[in-house]
Amino acid sequence: MAILAPSILSADLSNLAQQIRLTEMGGADWIHCDVMDGHFVPNLTFGPIVVDAVKRSTHLPVDVHLMIKDPDKLLENFVKAGANYITVHYEAAAHLNRTINRIKELGCKAGVSINPATPVQSLEDIAEYADLILLMSVNPGFGGQSFIPNVLKKIHELVELRKKLHAKFLIEIDGGIDNKTIQPALKAGIDVFVAGSSIFKADNITAATAELKNILKANG
Length: 220
Ligand code: DX5
Ligand code: ZN
Hints:
8-stranded parallel beta sheet; 220 residues; 19% strand; 8 helices
């Protein structure tokens, strides 16, 4: 069954452990952490110390999405903080093959993300080395944006590329996922769904998590 990864970007950080617990009660599978540097994206969020706090609040895998330039120098800090998956951006890493290898050497699963305007073909020479490919369905930087429908075509292209390469990476989607957009993305072949505002801005976080989880269960 597909995996649901609530993004703490939209959570009440003054109550982080409790907010994570509410998603666990609704059936969350991973916890997604959005790290932003104010350079690669126009927003700033948090770094390894918050990832460490997330790790100590949950037994679920911690999925770290680095929206930062030159991620190499911070990889070790995020691994030490407890990341299980570290995803870097294709557009932000100058030597992506080296970065992927380094993440794996540090004992972590390695992901590569592409922005909405970056074609799937850019991944031809790196995808087979990745454990996960993250397709952005909004321009990264902020929660609460609308899903960009053209990503559906990219999901199909990525599923084809995975077949062609005989690769096993998971395909993750991030941005604008709610009880309407989750279904077409699932049909197109997504394995991992990130959802921020549709979970944490809901009146009932546990019920909102369970609603998305039930859609995945019913269709998986
Ligand atoms: C966007 C982040 C997302 C974000 C998704 O830059 O990478 O993970 O939290 O938020 P929603 O689900 O609100 O679009
Ligand atoms: Zn993210």
